[in-house]
Amino acid sequence: MITVLHPWHGAHYGAAAPKEVTAVIEIPQGSRAKYEVDKTTGLLKLDRVIYSSFHYPINYGFIPQTLGQDGDPLDILVFCSQSIQPLCLVEATVIGNMQMIDSGQMDDKIIAVATHDPSVNHMTSVDDLPPHFINELRNYFEQYKVLENKKVEIDNFQDKGVAFKIIEDAIALYKENFRH
């Protein structure tokens, strides 16, 4: 018998959280398609195609069994030398947070590196990311909704200590809202 679990509720955030987490990738690096896990079915759905000529500069997903301040699973950006397929589970080492304000609402983006990618796993802090890449991330997320007439601001990049607290809070909020 095969049992299919919902990726948000069935997968686990990882035994070493908040330092190392399991990420579920929704959008591969290089994509213009905004995929999202459907909260009801757990299937991957196409939310929209990014209106601009931009493409995701990093693999984008969420941490299972977490609930962010925006009412969705906590977002995670996974730096990797490869584009990672949607719904792939990735062990990710947390190195920081990008604090974003999307249409007036806080929307944290945990920043991590793929734990098993030797090209990036030596990075232990957001300070280790190339400055140009930080600028690219900021530019992408500030601009990708402009043609939808939506405003996104990047408040700042925060260290992994802040990211750990955000993850712990998101795990606790999930447990409060989804008791099994």
Walk me through what this model shows:
There is one protein chain. This protein is of the alpha+beta class. It has helices spanning 131-143, 160-177, and strands spanning 20-27, 33-37, 44-49, 59-62, 75-79, 89-102, 105-106, 109-114, 152-159. The strands form 2 sheets. Strands 1-4-5-8-6 form a 5-stranded mixed beta barrel. A two-stranded antiparallel ribbon has the order 2-3. The longest helix has 18 residues, at 160-177. The mean pLDDT is 92.
Head-to-tail CA distance between termini: 22 Å
CATH hierarchy class name: Alpha Beta
CATH architectural type: Alpha-Beta Complex
Q: What is the CATH third-level topology name?
A: Inorganic Pyrophosphatase
How confident is the prediction overall: mean pLDDT? 92
Low-confidence runs (pLDDT<50, min 5 residues)?
none
Keywords:
180 residues, alpha+beta, Inorganic Pyrophosphatase, 5-stranded mixed barrel, two-stranded antiparallel sheet, 9 strands
SSE order and pairing:
Blueprint: E1 20-27, E2 33-37, E3 44-49, E4 59-62, E5 75-79, E6 89-102, E7 105-106, E8 109-114, H1 131-143, E9 152-159, H2 160-177
Parallel strand pairs: 5-8
Antiparallel strand pairs: 1-4, 1-6, 2-3, 4-5, 6-7, 6-8, 6-9
In short:
The protein is of the alpha+beta class. Helices cover 17% and strands 32% of the residues.
